[in-house]
Design a protein that fits this description.
With about 170 residues, this protein is α/β, with parallel strands linked by helices. It has a single domain, classed as P-loop containing nucleotide triphosphate hydrolases (Rossmann fold, 3-Layer(aba) Sandwich), CATH 3.40.50.300. About 40% of the residues lie in helices and about 15% in strands. Strands 1-8-7-4 form a 4-stranded parallel sheet, with helices on both faces. It is globular. The mean pLDDT is about 85.
């Protein structure tokens, strides 16, 4: 599903509402037939995965950024990195998954495009079990072709997950 509209039209707010990050004054949002206001936030976060417009990277290692609860195997993590096009970059780092990431500006060597791909890899790790994957301009720092490849990779990783993506330009969907 794609949502396209001009800046400020509420696209990001809609995704944040679906993820339970904001509240609505009327109406309701249903996930698998359940009103999200009645679903515990922890359960909702397992069912609805959000890749925000400005993804955050936290000080620590790449592994900690991808799998903060340490529940995924190395194989699963590398698979997610391969899916989003980060495998070569990360495998070329001397520390691999243990390479250092700083919170400011994504850290040394982490461009906005790479930070977006890290957020997508994090989502890919959780998307297989999610009901919905919400992508808010998931690769705004990438060209249109690279973004389409990223969306196709996420769809392949989670074939039974509903993917909702937001874009300002129609060539981005």
């Amino acid at each position: 599903v794609a949502i396209c509209g001009r800046s400020g039209s509420g696209k990001s707010t809609l995704l944040l509402t679906c993820a339970g990050a904001t509240t609505i004054s009327s109406g309701r949002v249903l996930v698998d037939g359940h009103d999200i206001r009645r679903v515990p936030l922890r359960a909702l976060r397992h069912r609805v995965v959000l890749v925000p417009q400005d993804p955050a990277m936290f000080s620590g290692t790449l592994r900690e950024n991808l799998d903060p609860l340490a529940v995924h195997t190395d194989e699963e993590i590398w698979h997610s990195l391969r899916a989003v096009g980060l495998f070569d970059f990360v495998s070329s780092q001397p520390a691999g998954l243990e390479c250092s990431v700083c919170s400011r500006s994504g850290g040394a060597g982490w461009s906005a495009g790479r930070a977006g791909r890290v957020a997508a890899a994090r989502a890919a790790l959780h998307a297989r079990l999610a009901a919905a994957l919400l992508l808010d301009e998931p690769a705004a720092a990438l060209d249109a072709g690279a973004e389409r490849a990223l969306l196709a990779a996420l769809a392949a990783v989670a074939p039974h997950t509903t993917i909702i993506t937001v874009a300002v330009l129609t060539d981005r969907i």
